[in-house]
Amino acid sequence: MTILGGVALLLWGARMIRTGMTRAFGTELRSVVASCTSNRVFAAGAGTLVAGLIQSSTATALIVCSFVGRGALATAPALAVMLGADLGSAAAVVVVASGIAVIWPIFAFLGYVIHVAGAKRSPRIKHIGRILIGFAMLLVALNMVGGASRSLGESEIVGLILNAMASEPFLAVVVGVVLTWMAYSSVAIVLLVSSLAVAGAFPLEALMTIVLGVNLGAALPAITATIAEPVSARRIPLGNLIFRLIGVVACWIALPWLAPELARLVPGPAAQVVAFHVAFNAALCVLSLILIGPVAALTEKILPEPSAELSDSGPRYLDEHLLETPSLALSSATRETLRMGDIIEDMLAKTIRVFREDDKALLSEVEAQEEQIDQLYEAVKLYLMRLSQDELGDDESRRCIEIITFTTNLEHVGDIIDKNLMELAAKKIKGKLSFSDQGLAELADVHSMLMETVRLSLSVFIAPDAQQARLLLARKDQFRKMELEGTEWHLERLRSGMIESIETSSLHLDMLRDFKRINSHLTSVAYPILSRRGELRSSRLVNEEQAETLRERGIDGGAGVAGPKP
Fold it and tell me: Are residues 189 and 178 in contact, defined by beta-carbon separation less than 8 angstroms?
């Protein structure tokens, strides 16, 4: 149980280091990867640096795949980055296993102090504290596993496993593959194997075979994590697997000669395990740089581009690999929300044409776009829910809520267009009804103002500005007045006995009501901005003293008189 608890602590510490590093320096790390791909050597160096810092070649692979999936990086340099990432991950093992485990209290204390002190000052400082705490947990886990593993040599069960591995080296490789795949961390499993080596119960050749399995299994998490990505992105982990498979097979064949030589050059079983792991990845990186071109071509043959174009109705910008970097993930969600806004704007533009031209085909297009709005809304909502499962800063939490709120309002607007306005249009087409010239012109004026509201609301959403927010919210009162005036003019036409107005009365009034509802949903994006500045009233109602003053002045205390507009 001590070993199992130590393994759990080891994995959790490695995860804290990885998430802390990506959240504190995620943007910078991605910039390093993007800017150092001019040649294979520089690309490999960038991969080594990034993976060494975040102690995860899998996390580096996801960063690389996100670039390749968007067409920002070609297959060959991306594979070079991955080769360097494997080496950087192996180098992280050397640092952790260098004997600094005894000073874990220093890392724990400093990490806690920095985390608490940075909580109110800077999210980056707070995440640096998280990195140090994770490092302390990792070192504590190494002490636990190393101390408990010394008694393994006396276990009969372990003896049976050792005999099986000695006679079946393939089983040792499988054990290494499965452990690494389950743990999602080759760093943690190699450290675990080195701790078990201290017990002296495992022969060196069996340990080296397990390490080969660890290196092969380290390629699998990236494959499973990118299974839903574009074909171009999936080629990178596949190419990395091919490189590792070639290296494992070649090294397995040479293992009977390598084991005695390693024992002669490196003293101590734990150091031998770490040295073999690093040497394997270093040799694989150097030798494989020559084979990048053929392997890249091979991956393109195995995973060719699909001949048929995929549907463009799904999300474009919700990159799963950015969830560990909240600022970038929120930017992706913002881009997807703006895409929803563009679709809503197009739906509204088509709506007035449907009523004017009685176009059934256009009506069907609008209904299809509403289904796309629903799909994007669900995708953005689930994406932000996953993001909010981890600790976010105050600004990040507020922005997350603002995005969810605005996407919800856009989804409501889509429903109003589809379930209300398009049903009214279908009714008008079926009944072969026509608006009066005056009535259609009034509806077109209200619609034109609504289109301006859409564009202004998107502008306020992307760049929160108090002046623009006040302008947007003022349009709510203007829109209310336009609705009242439109209703009065329509009733005047009814009193005059205009036939078209009588036949389309319910359509006309319902359209005004629905336009007003849409306007209210869109202008709500201004509320959080003005609320933070203290520029919103708690109620539109006037108090008794204000009401009496208005009556004395002969002013109707109707809507829109509760003080100055925001």
Answer: no
In angstroms, what is the C-alpha Rg of the chain? 32
Cβ-contact 14, 52 below 8 angstroms: no
- Which pTM does this prediction carry? 0.60
pLDDT in tens, 226-278: 886 778 888 999 999 999 999 999 998 888 888 888 888 888 888 888 899 99
How many other C-beta atoms are found inside a 10 Å radius of the C-beta of residue 419?
A: 12
Reading the block at residue 31, the tokens are 């910039």
- Name which of 180, 100, 179, 112 is nearest 140 in CA terms: 100
Closest of 40, 35, 34, 36 to residue 288, by C-alpha: 40
In the DSSP assignment, the letter for residue 124 is: H
| Nearby residues of 538 by Cβ (< 8 Å), 6 or more positions away | none
User: Closest by alpha carbon to 220, among 179, 170, 268?
Assistant: 179
Q: Which two tokens stand for residue 127?
A: 């995440």
pLDDT digits (tens, 9 = 90+) for 365-387: 999 999 999 999 999 999 998 88
Both tokens assigned to 355? 């009523």
SS (H, E, C) 470-518: HHHHHHHHHHHHHHHHHHHHHHHHHHCCCHHHHHCHHHHHHHHHHHHHH
Is 127 in contact with 111 (CB distance < 8 Å)?
no
If you ran DSSP here, which 8-state letter would residue 526 be given? G
User: Could you count the other beta carbons within 10 Å of the beta carbon of residue 163?
Assistant: 11
The alpha carbon torsion through 212, 10, 92, 236 (nearest 10 deg) reads: 60
3 state DSSP class of 392? coil
Residues 6+ apart with CB under 8 A from 420: 510, 514
- pLDDT band of residue 558 (cuts 50, 70, 90) is very low
Q: What is the pLDDT of residues 150-193, one digit of tens each?
A: 565 556 666 566 566 656 778 888 888 888 887 677 877 887 78
Q: What backbone torsions phi and psi does residue 38 show, to the nearest 5 degrees?
A: -70, -30
Euclidean distance between CA atoms 281 and 91, whole angstroms:
9
- Look up residue 210 and give its two tokens: 């397990």
DSSP 8-state assignment for residue 101: G
